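discrete fold record:
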Amino acid sequence: MSGWMDHLTIAPIVIPLLAGTLMLLIGERRRPLKAAFGMTSVLLQLASALLLLLLADGITAGTDAAAVRVYRLGDWPSLFGIVLVLDRLSALMLVLTAVLGLAALTFSLAHWQRAGAHFHPLFQFQLMGLNGAFLTGDLFNLFVFFEVMLAASYGLALHGSGIARVRAGLHYVAINLVASLFFLIGVSMIYGLAGTLNMADLAGRIAGLRAEDRALVEVGAAILGIAFLIKAGMWPLGFWLPTTYAAAGTASAAIISILSKVGIYAVLRLWLLMFGEIGGDSAGFGGTWLMIGGLLTIAFGSLAVLATQNMARLAGASVLVSSGTLLAAIGTGQVAVTGGALFYLTSSVLAIAAFFLVIELIERGREVGADVLAVTREAFGDDEDADEEEEIGLAIPGTMAVLGMGFISCALLLAGLPPLSGFLAKFAMLAPLLGSGDGVSATTWALLAALILSGLATVIAMTRTGIDAFWASPAAQVPRVQVSEVVPIVLLLALCLALTIQAGPVMRYMEATAQSLHAPRDYVRSVVPAPQAPEQVEKGGP
């Protein structure tokens, strides 16, 4: 392709960068203008992400030849310059990020954009960091985008003030700074031994290292893995997650919830590149620990789900259960299970974000502090009467019925009950393990038990919470809900329904993605140029 399509790969990074920078030049009083810029930016990101998804899947070309697209900034060779790489996995994550961004930003327009300063630029920089982490092809820039993403998430986690939010936010900042230190140590060790940070180049070089150097690379990879697993929330590294997510503002929590999946993405990408099919003697390194850590995380998350009496903490604990499920599935090292795990990742990301949004609307009428706007009106010079008029929503008939249906849908998705996509995703993960001709292993039985028990724990917790919210102590008055708050919930749940209806095509995409991840030779060949033959060099050939 030629022209602007050649630069489409970098669009998900450039669009939020430009939008966020422009918003910093606009005063806080002009929030409608900022909101317009933000919505335009998110819609452009969604459009570009969908087009990149088609390109990565080879649909537009009618072939799989376009499955890996490489964008070399400054047209420098991959081993010397910054390189962005688009494949099926990164395209999938870009679409998920854009969808969550659209839902969270739309929800924030009713209240949360006014809860503190610089919400809109922070939101755009958050999207930029996420998109960059999914597209980058080297470890150094993965660290850079991680820091951009985390710096923005610090501001979003603290957005709205309040003692509980500040306390949880400071813990979140401190823990992630430690994770960043581990990241740097691990990257330094790998670079010192392999001589490169390009992920595709690392895949080829590790196999050729001496045994003693390979052992040190594995140590560096383990340290790097700690940083990723902290972000993924694996037990015992994820103790901070439920509290932080529960304390964050609703719109912030909805978009921050995907940060745990960035850790999953990094583990999946690097583990299968460095220690997968072409990893030599290091192939399969760490798989057992991923399985064990995933099972322990599911157990810890399930206990947290049962123990909590707070809806927001219940949503945070559900993030732990989903992360543990993904880590355990990835740890099996099977292509078919990875495909099911990617289906589960997509469904759980959408369901958890929808649950965070539903929670605020339910608890708003119960006056339990879900909609705390702690920043004073005087901070922005707003007129009190004008703000009160602005915050009046529509008393939609059947509001509680709508919220109840949303709550039930989230419960079915998170528990993995039929007929929705949560059940199909868990079935897709377990079917290859149970249908293996080699018999069912002990780890398979453990994973089966963990998924069943975690689903049961979620059913018990959601039933108890639903009875309390809608029956035992319902809202004293019907909560005022704006259309901009209902639409994103409907969007997210409708996408989960679409995943259920179109499970066949979706699973084919996920299986193709898993196959390319477990056999990354096409990825490596696309990123790392083949050595030139002597006669080509003399003739100046490519």
